Amino acid sequence: MNNDWKKVCNLEDIPRLGSRVVKHMDEAEGGIDIAIFRTQGEVFALRDKCPHKGGPLSQGIVHGKQVTCPLHNWKLHLDTGEAVAPDQGCARRYPVKIESGVVFLQL
Question: Sheet holding 75-77: strands in order across?
Fold first, then answer.
């Protein structure tokens, strides 16, 4: 396994249509929160900060492959981090993989 993949949790630790937050120390930005989202069949990871006003995406509502920010109802695509038009902006996306029921995040 590549060294930049970090084990973060078991898949069952993330509720369906919900999320879990992972803390990460970034050399450039310091401590950041990464939200790991679980849809009905996939897992995605975005920086836990809406590009609009910095709202906690992990507290938003997951629907389909999107999350709605709890502050101002911006919708973001979980697979790209891009805001749904007409809104513009992007939350940083992180690659995720699942092996034997364990979730790994590429940092």
Answer: 61-63, 66-68, 75-77
